Fold this protein.
Amino acid sequence: MTGFFRVATYAVGLIGLFAAFSHYGIPQLVPEPPPVEERVTGTMTTEEFVTVGARIYARVCVLCHSGLGDRAPKLDAIAMAWRERIGDPRYRGKAKNLEEYLRESMVEPSAYVVKGFGKPGTNDTESPMPEATKGALALNPGEIDALIAYLQSAAGTQVTVAPRAGLAAGAGRPTAEPSIGEKALDAVTALQKFQCNTCHRLPGLATEDGAQPLGPDLREIWRTAANRVAGMNARDFLTESILFPNKVVAKDFESGLMPEDYGDRMLVAELLMIVDHLAREH
Amino acid sequence: MRALASMLLFVLVLVAFEAALSLAPWHEGAMAAAGAPAVEATAAQPGAPKLTVADYPRYRGFNSRLTVWIAAQLHLFFAAFVLGVPIFVLVIEFIGWRNGDPRYDRMAHEFIKISMGAFSLTATSGGILVFALAVFYPGLFAYLTRIFGPVMMLYALLFLAETACLYAYYYGWDSMQGRRKPGHLLLGLALNVVGTLLMGLSNSWATFMMAPSGVDSQGVFAGNVWVAVAGPLWTPLNVHRFLANIAYGGAIVGAYAAYKFIAARASEAKAHYDWMGHTANGIAVVAMLPLPFAGYWMTKEIYAYSQQMGITLMGGVFAWLFIIQAVLIGTIFLAANFYLWCGMARLDGANRTAHLVKYIAGVLVICFLVWFTPHTLVMTARELATIGGAYHPVLGPLGVMSAKNTAVNIMILATFFTYQLFRRSMVHSTRPWMARASRFQVALYVAAVANIIWLGVYGYFVPANIRIGLSVPQVMTTLLVIIVCIVVDEVIASRSKRIGAVHWGRMPARAQYALFTLAVAFTWLMGLMGYIRSSIRQHWHVYTVMRDGSVDAFTPTIGHATAIVSVCTLLFLALILFVFWLSGLSRAREAPAGLAEAGATP
């Protein structure tokens, strides 16, 4: 048995070493959450519109167009380069100005492939860039406009696109259905959107202390959420309490008061924001 | 019978879920009951469903993703083991049959006996995986079933065929000796063919989720299941897993041999398990040598399918995981070489070459450090400012593929050189042409290393697409050296006199820990690479076609992911220890004879 324990200890120690290196020898980056569709409204200012474009650029484009120019062409000099490119005999597009060139580059990337950046074996006639309106990117027209606005702004030229309201949503990503409404941009807005403060006292939201709430006070829920149900951590408990509110009902409160349709009405991002907000110490 | 029952259970679970979930009315009814948005459909064929949080059942005490993750990983560990072991068992049995040495036959039998216990756990973990997937991810499982239904039925039938072949192969071992041996070998071949087909079919589900084919952008299935199976990543993944399974099987049975070696008291038993461990280490190393190239091919195909996915894999947040991979592979190379170096103590003639070991160790460490050097990393602004750019000013050039390809090829050559030293230590060249042949081998090594380094340096001065192509002549150079040296060594060995004997069992205990290191590092590495392969889909169940709408549709941090990998590794090793214990219970108490001073060819 001594041999067995020695071997088992060695194996566990080795696994511990690998795990420890992965924890402490490697930076613990927090990956981006799943992308949600950016909503563009007709009332946005140009500055807000460019900010939306910058956000999309940071999420979608920067991995390849990183500024190093090794994976995809740099875009900092695009204001000068586009004229040269549409005059190149290899150009197969129809753009007449920078806005059209940028839009064409996103929806039809092979219209012009910068030398050295084509798919291997295609002699720079086919771009490896995915079409921005399809597949994993699936940007909607409003997002494409916002990106163009950002790229024009970053290149120091006049922004020629304006925000348009009511543009079609892209496929494949959670979209704000008409019944769901505008996506809340932060947890407090989400709590207000779903009128959680009507029945609960909530962190970050002012309440009238005199009134008797219909639901439990959630301002300190982060202290107890992890211990409410055996085997469930705080996030799981809060998620389940929002989606299936009658599974576990707090003492002294009635069952059946809280609506059970939040799973249909909430966007995933809103649910995550609310859960994060409630699970965090305030 | 326990194993047979588990396998039948697995098949029944698979068939039952396949039948139940492929019924579209059931699925749509369930979705409607859950309050899910209507499944997007065309009049002819429904596309991939668009799922919301409500479409994922949640059960108290279970985290859906973790449950499926752990079940899938354990199934993959066991499946890799039980598919890999019969391949080299067949080869060892064939060698024993051809050279008439019964020890090979006995060792092959013992190897397959170990995997017998693991077969039932493979089936059990597979049943749990199917169950968990259907329960926690019904929308995804129904969609996959709609496309791969016929493949799943074929898979179930092949699983029964695999079970039949395995039982006939294992239980027929003693009765199918002598004139019946070719029939037994054919049975082993059938077992491996069916096993490889099984692997290929199940791989197609994973590669479809990564790079879907046979469906349009909305996930509507065109109707040709073969197109869905043979997606762009299917063949590279098949090749990669086929090789990895052999290497993994070798590493696990090596750990078994090491454990038995440490526990053994009798010198005959120690000799037997020493020989077994040496053979298992050789299998693991030989199968591992081409793995980096299979990995490069797989990555190249990922880039060809989607540059976005490729860059996410190698240049995004996942890039750091390849630093961990480098540490693990470096550990494996060093452990395998350390075992071989220790193994020289078994040879009377090893002192002629022992002084070379320190140089080989130096080369391995330098190459490991080059491989370990990151390329472009996701950094904070502060880190970027500290380093002065995305690359380290001095070490940055070592991070590119030219340097890494060069390093890995030289590591492989160094490992092969260690193995060659071991074999050459047993023979004494007696004729002048043998000395010339040895000098030719040295010249070949020097020329090969020079060529590999030159190609690596040349890679810095050519565009990226040409640079990637340079890895091919580098690999060909490495393979050429290995093949030519094996041929020359065989010719020399067949016409030389042997120096002394191989003292099997004359091996320090610390060398056995190198075998445990191989098993642990291989298992952990498989868990890590499996995670990377699966998670580069990010928030997609089926990339670009079917989005993950669950609350778990986010990429975990590296620490969280590797903690799960560690848990899976611990669980697997605990279960495999149980299998070792079981195989020991049924083992005959006969002492393997005649090996301690024998010259069984390593």
About this structure: Chain A touches chain B through 67 residues (CB under 8 Å).
